[in-house]
Amino acid sequence: MDWRRYAEQMAVLARDLLAQDSVQATLDAVAQSAVKLIEGCDAAGILAVSKGRTVTLSVCGDMVEESDRLQGELGEGPCFDAAHRVDGERLFRIADMTLPQPSWPLYSRAARDLGIGSMTGVLLYTDQQDFGALNLYSRSPGAFGADIESAGWLLASHAAVALAGARTVEQLEHALETRHSIGEAMGILMERHRLSQEEAFAVLRRLSQQHNVKLRDVAGHVRAGSRAGSPQD
Predict the structure, then answer these.
(1) In terms of residue numbers, what domain contains 136?
(2) Per-residue pLDDT tens over the stretch 81-105
(3) What pLDDT does residue 230 have?
């Protein structure tokens, strides 16, 4: 592998990932970059496991969704294990999926039917917590050589940093939207019922507690009622 060229590609990828405007866009960019940058990679996907259930977060290329579905359905498979961090393994590499795989007998037979020749998976994490696995597929046996360990880790590390940043941005944007919604609802109550700022907020909080509804949802109802011209209690 030309590591100098790969390092340059990683630098470009880092800028591209940070330019994405949502977590989903970041995930999709990671999967697409894997197919573009990893030699021999025909398809890539990001799989997470939540409460024992597999969740396909992003797909680039065919065979990925069906592979994820089968692993979740059968409860076995290399991607399923990687997302679970089975035995502490953070990377797996299967040189030839056309051969029987004793660890995943049911899945390996299904994988051959899907046309999967070889696979590699790298654990993804953010803020020192497991997130899932970046899984690479090739139709050809032996597609991923020894270099894939370093190449995969570099890609996964860039992805993890970008995902952590994307999550932070989305959380911040959500917090700002919530604050704006509550402020607008308070303004409506203040104008309509001649309340002070503290009194308007107290009304929203009381409604939230009484109805066991989040404060932002109460604010949303107040704003919707105002636009519809209906009275608010």
Answers:
(1) 3-167
(2) 776 664 556 788 899 999 989 999 9
(3) 46
